[in-house]
């Protein structure tokens, strides 16, 4: 009898332990990696484990980041870094969720698109004080500083700048005797002339799916030219939205023509991958993209078949350009801010940033690095040329201060698709876009 | 006796606790959120707003469209998956050379994730570079490339085709298992009574596998209804929202707007619909035999 009792209580004990360890295992994700404190590492002091998450994930870039992190760990034996790399499509949601749930996180990648939202929710630590003590900050370009600044405080150190340019099929243009287009009007005409559906050849690598807003936004700004408020580029100097003018209508009508007469019908649904793939596989003639596609163009296309040019301009001979960027932020709830800043400063130093920019195809953030031979030739040269023509290419500060930014992409995609498919008129669509930004502005007042 | 009872209860506690923490709490939280203004961009302004989220949903043409799409999506996917799955199972029941290999190929799709299948079919359906258009062109069946995913009239058909491909394996596996359990003597006996192949199918095979059919179609309908992954990977609800079903719309509310309130409201509506469906389905099919395989 007694033996049975003991057996039972043993069973209880065992099952309790099993459950407890199971629960502990489930909770692990958030807890275990905080302050690891095994002093066994070299240096003798306490080892700190930093958690870091990236947003613009792609396999090559992650590998590059890991190499940089290894080097950092070598130089700082007391700091371990755990890099989290969610798939690109879900990364920002994952970051947002981790921040909202106050999960252990020290360094995160903020983007110009979502930094305002993070700042409004108090998730980020201002970096001004840290940067003031950082010797490499002197050579960080003003564009790179601007992109990381929200509400007059610095919230991320950009890891590279993106700026759009035009890529085109040099051989096709030559074959047809068409000049490289300088304006949108010329671009659309050239694209129409090169379109030949019977041979599965189209003028323009259109993108009507995720990320669709980029081309219409740019065209509408270029058509409004001097009237656009360069510090708040979805609005005019008068305060109205850029979508409310007759110029906007002219721009969007041309944009619809570009889709209907010069782009693959399928492209109403295309995102980044399809858009680039269509260009590299010889379906389309023109592609407007950031420099991070250069590596894949160089890999997948024969030399001499493609080239790059400056962005087209609007009817007034002007275009608005902006360097976008993403970069490293410090989470406000981080328990290891000093160490986390050390990591940010390391990743952003001229040497590491130049390696990263070359590998990933962005423009470096240090003025000293832009002088590197690598960035003075080929497709990168076009980008530098554009910045050297400040009268034609007006530099604006990307709209980062509106929390509504996050929803603009989806709204633009859906209403845009309806317009491109002929289910809605240009006027009605512009009215919707106008309403969206008017409301967005009211919301932040 | 009471001690034993206490012990049983005590032993159940860990399981109950796990369920409470990982199933009931999130469920309860989701229902509560459906009545709140809960937007991720605006967490300082979380408050109860009554039935506002539900009202918004029913006033949104997109929601109504997704509701209609959900019905088309479930009924046509399920019917085709079942019919093709059943025919495959009937074919696979007979032994033939290379059956094992063939079976492997048939069941292979079931091992993939829905999202991945979406991405694969997205490239196959691509009108400029996709293999489907290429084959149809080479076969001389079409003159012009079809925008399977960009033409709103084709898009829904295309996602259903992909979904049918995905789900056939499930029915084939389950029905094959049921078919193999039909005793051979029954066929012999039926044969002696003069039944032909068709008669045998309807009088022996079918009655024997009916419980499996009920259980599998019931389960599969709920899965199809709930699973946004294929649509998310394939069209993301596009073009112009023409392929949204309720679950993909719910996901979009969260991913693009961080609007957990509206998303939860859609979730609660879906839950109510599924409960009604299950009760109705079990009632008309007389539930006592379900799961008896």
From TrEMBL, chain A:
The keyword Transmembrane does not apply. Pfam families: SBP_bac_1 (PF01547). It comes from the Bacteria. InterPro entries: Bact_solute-bd_prot1, SBP. Keywords: Signal. PANTHER family: ARABINOSE-BINDING PROTEIN-RELATED (PTHR43649), DIACETYLCHITOBIOSE BINDING PROTEIN DASA (PTHR43649:SF12). This is Sugar ABC transporter substrate-binding protein. The lineage of its organism: Bacteria, Bacillati, Bacillota, Bacilli, Bacillales.
Automatic annotation (TrEMBL), chain B:
PROSITE patterns: ABC_TM1. Keywords: Cell membrane, Membrane, Transmembrane, Transmembrane helix, Transport. Residues 67-281 form the ABC transmembrane type-1 domain. One of its GO terms (cellular component) is plasma membrane. CDD domains: TM_PBP2. It comes from the Bacteria. GO terms for biological process: transmembrane transport. It is a multi-pass membrane protein. The chain crosses the membrane at residues 7-28, 71-92, 104-124, 154-180, 201-225, 260-284. It holds the Pfam family BPD_transp_1. Its main location: membrane. It is found in: Cell membrane. Belongs to the binding-protein-dependent transport system permease family. PANTHER family: BLR7065 PROTEIN (PTHR43005), SPERMIDINE_PUTRESCINE TRANSPORT SYSTEM PERMEASE PROTEIN (PTHR43005:SF1). This is Sugar ABC transporter permease.
């Amino acid at each position: 009898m007694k033996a049975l009792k003991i057996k039972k209580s043993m069973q209880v004990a065992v099952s309790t332990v099993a459950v407890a360890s199971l629960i502990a295992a489930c909770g692990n994700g958030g807890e275990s990696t905080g302050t690891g404190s095994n002093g066994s590492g070299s240096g003798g002091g306490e080892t700190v484990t930093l958690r870091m998450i990236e947003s613009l994930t792609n396999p090559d870039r992650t590998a590059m980041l890991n190499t940089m992190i290894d080097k950092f760990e070598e130089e700082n034996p007391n700091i371990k870094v755990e890099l989290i790399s969610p798939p690109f499509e879900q990364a920002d949601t994952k970051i947002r969720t981790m921040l909202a749930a106050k999960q252990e996180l020290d360094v995160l990648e903020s983007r110009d698109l979502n930094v305002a939202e993070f700042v409004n929710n108090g998730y980020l630590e201002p970096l001004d004080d840290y940067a003031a003590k950082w010797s490499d900050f002197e050579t960080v370009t003003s564009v790179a500083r601007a992109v990381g600044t929200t509400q007059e405080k610095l919230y991320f150190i950009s890891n590279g700048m993106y700026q759009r340019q035009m890529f085109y099929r040099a051989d096709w243009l030559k074959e047809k005797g068409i000049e490289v287009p300088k304006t949108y009007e010329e671009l659309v005409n050239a694209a129409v002339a090169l379109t030949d559906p019977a041979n599965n050849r189209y003028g323009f690598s259109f993108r009507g799916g995720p990320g669709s807003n980029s081309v219409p936004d740019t065209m509408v700004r270029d058509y409004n030219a001097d009237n656009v408020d360069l510090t708040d580029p979805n609005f005019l100097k008068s305060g109205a939205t850029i979508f409310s003018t007759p110029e906007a209508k002219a721009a969007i009508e041309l944009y619809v023509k570009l889709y209907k007469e010069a782009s693959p019908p399928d492209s109403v649904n295309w995102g980044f991958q399809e858009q680039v793939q269509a260009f590299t596989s010889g379906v389309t003639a023109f592609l407007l993209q950031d420099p991070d596609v250069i590596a894949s163009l160089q890999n997948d296309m024969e030399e001499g078949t493609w080239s790059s040019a400056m962005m087209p301009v609007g009817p007034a001979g002007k275009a608005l350009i902006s360097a976008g960027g993403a970069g490293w932020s410090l989470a406000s709830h981080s328990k290891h801010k000093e160490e986390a800043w050390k990591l940010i400063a390391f990743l952003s130093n001229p040497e590491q940033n130049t390696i990263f920019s070359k590998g990933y195809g962005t423009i470096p953030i240090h003025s000293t690095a832009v002088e590197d031979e690598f960035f003075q030739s080929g497709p990168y040269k076009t980008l530098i040329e554009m910045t050297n023509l400040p009268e034609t290419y007006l530099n604006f500060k990307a709209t980062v201060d509106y929390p509504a930014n996050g929803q603009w992409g989806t709204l633009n995609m859906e209403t845009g698709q309806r317009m491109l498919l002929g289910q809605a008129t240009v006027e009605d669509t512009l009215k919707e876009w106008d309403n969206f930004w008017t409301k967005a502005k009211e919301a932040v007042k | 006796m009471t001690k034993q009872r206490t012990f049983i209860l005590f032993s159940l506690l860990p399981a109950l606790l796990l369920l409470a923490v990982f199933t009931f709490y999130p469920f309860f939280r989701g229902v509560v959120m459906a009545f709140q203004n809960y937007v991720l961009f605006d967490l300082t302004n979380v408050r109860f707003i009554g039935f506002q989220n539900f009202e918004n949903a029913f006033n949104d043409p997109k929601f109504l469209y997704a509701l209609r799409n959900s019905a088309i999506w479930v009924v046509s996917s399920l019917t085709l998956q079942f019919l093709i799955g059943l025919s495959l199972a009937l074919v696979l029941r007979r032994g033939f050379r290379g059956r094992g290999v063939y079976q492997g190929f048939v069941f292979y799709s079931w091992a993939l994730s829905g999202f991945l299948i979406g991405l694969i079919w997205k490239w196959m359906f691509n009108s400029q570079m996709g293999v489907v258009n290429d084959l149809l062109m080479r076969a001389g069946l079409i003159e012009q490339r079809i925008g399977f995913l960009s033409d709103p009239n084709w898009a829904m058909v295309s996602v259903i085709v992909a979904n049918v491909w995905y789900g056939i394996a499930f029915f084939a596996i389950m029905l094959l298992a049921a078919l193999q359990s039909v005793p051979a003597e029954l066929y012999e006996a039926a044969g002696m009574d003069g039944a032909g192949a068709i008669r045998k199918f309807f009088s022996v095979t079918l009655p024997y596998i009916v419980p499996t059919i009920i259980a599998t179609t019931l389960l599969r309908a709920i899965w199809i209804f709930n699973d946004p992954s294929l649509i998310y990977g394939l069209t993301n609800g596009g073009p112009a929202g023409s392929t949204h079903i309720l679950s993909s719309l719910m996901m979009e509310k969260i991913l693009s707007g961080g609007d957990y309130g509206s998303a939860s409201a859609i979730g609660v509506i879906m839950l109510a619909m599924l409960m009604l469906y299950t009760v109705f389905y079990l009632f008309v099919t007389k539930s006592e035999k379900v799961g008896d395989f």
